[in-house]
Amino acid sequence: MEKRDYLIDQIEQLGQALAQIFSKLFRQSNQGKVPEAIEMTSRSLKTELDLDLAEISSIPPGDFIITLQKVKKLNHTNLELLADILLQVADATFIDDLKSDESFNLYSKCLEIYNHLNERDLTYSFERESKIARIQNILLQTN
User: Fold this and answer.
1) Exposure winner among 15, 57, 71, 111, fewest CB in 10 A?
2) Long-range contact set of residues 3-12: C-beta below 8 Å, sequence gap at least 24
3) CB-CB contact of 52 with 42 (8 Å)
4) How many degrees, rounded to 5, is the angle at CA 110 between CA 81 and CA 143?
5) What confidence tens digit (pLDDT) does each residue in 10-63 have?
6) How far apart are CA 93 and CA 88, in angstroms?
C-alpha cells in the first residue's frame, strides 16, 4: 500500500512541477524573452522528466506516448500539462520564426498527445478540441 501512495505522490509532484514550468514559460514569453523561456523550459523538463525539448522532438511518433506513460510515468493530467507546455514553446518559436522545423515537430507532438487524450479520456474537452483544430490548421498551412 505504501508503494502505491509513494507513486501517487511522485505523479502529483510531477504535475505540480509541470504546472510551474508552464507558468514560468507563459510569463517569460509574454515579456518577450522567448529564447530564455525556451531554454528555461528545456532545463526544467530535463530536471523534472529527464527529458529535454531536443529529446522530446527526437522520440519517434509511434513510441512517443508509450515513452511518456511507461518510462516517464505521466498520467493523463500530466500529459495534458506537457502538451500545453510544448504548445506554448511551439507557438513562441513559430511566431518568432526561430526554428520552423522545431515548431512543426513540437506541434506534431502536441497533436499526438491531445489526440491520445481524446481517445482515452471519458470527458469531452472543448478547449482540447480547439487546440487540436488550431494545431491542425497551423500544420496544414506550413505544408
Assistant:
1) 71
2) 7/73, 10/73, 11/73, 11/74, 11/75, 11/78
3) yes
4) 160
5) 666 666 776 777 666 666 656 666 777 788 888 888 888 888 888 888 999 889
6) 9
80 contact partners, CB below 8 Å, separation of at least 6: 113, 114, 117, 128
Evaluate whether 99 touches 53 at the Cβ level (below 8 Å). no
Phi, psi of 72 (to 5 degrees): -95, -5
pLDDT per residue as tens digits for the range 80-130: 989 998 998 888 887 656 457 888 999 999 999 999 999 998 888 999 999
Read off the C-alpha cell for 38: 525556451
Selection from 100, 126, 97 nearest residue 114 by Cα? 126
